[in-house]
Design brief:
The N terminus is likely disordered. This protein is about 25% helix and about 20% strand. With about 200 residues, the chain is of the alpha+beta class. It is elongated, with a radius of gyration of 40 Å. Strands 1-2-5-4-3 form a five-stranded antiparallel beta sheet, with helices on one face. The protein has one helix and five strands; from the N terminus they run H-E-E-E-E-E.
Length: about 200
């Protein structure tokens, strides 16, 4: 018996050949490739997140260190102004401002234990000045200055405001052209402000 060949080239009566199973393609990519792509994206996102968290932690650590150094520098600055090797440990809440352009004008406000206040004056020869009179050339204090710390003289408001009870004045050691070093304090000698002017 002769088999007849059909138009499509398949012999009549022959069983059609089964095509091997193929996975459906999405946009020309196999599911495995898509899975791998998703895994890479997820891994990249997790890596970036981890790096972001590490970056944020590093930024936080650097910020904390900067604040510590800044605060330490303010304490060191007060010690330098007062010509002291180190400040009493009880000093806290130091806030400093520099506002001079052609002259040195600096101001630091802080809190100190009253028992340690006298240590602040050991680096210079401080005196309690008299109230200024017309034509007086020696160290003196204007009556208008004996008010609140934020209103003292001509500087900016620095630190916590307090009523001035006593003003101590000395001549800075490193001021060849003149200057004034002032310590203001309240009645309890717990609040203090150091004011430095050097020509």
């Amino acid at each position: 018996m002769v088999n007849k060949t059909m138009a499509n080239g398949r012999k009549s009566g022959a069983r059609p050949q089964e095509r091997p199973f193929r996975t459906r393609r999405l946009s020309g990519h196999s599911p495995l490739a898509i899975y791998c792509l998703i895994a890479v994206i997820a891994d990249t996102m997790m890596t970036l997140l981890r790096r972001s968290l590490i970056g944020l932690a590093l930024i936080g650590a650097v910020g904390a260190l900067a604040v510590f150094v800044w605060r330490w520098d303010d304490r060191h600055h007060v010690a330098t102004m007062l010509n002291l090797e180190k400040l009493p440990q009880s000093i806290r809440g130091v806030d400093c401002t520099s506002f001079g352009v052609t002259d040195v004008l600096e101001r630091c406000s802080f809190e100190v234990e009253p028992d340690d206040f006298s240590k602040l004056m050991s680096g210079h020869k401080f005196q309690v000045p008299p109230v200024c009179r017309t034509g007086q050339s020696s160290l003196c204090v204007d009556k208008a200055d004996a008010g609140m710390a934020h209103d003292y003289c001509c500087g900016p408001k620095t630190g916590e405001n307090f009523p001035i009870a006593t003003i101590y004045i000395a001549t800075p050691r490193d001021a060849p052209h003149g200057g004034t070093l002032t310590i203001l304090t309240d009645t309890s000698k717990r609040r203090a402000m150091v004011d430095l002017y050097v020509e």
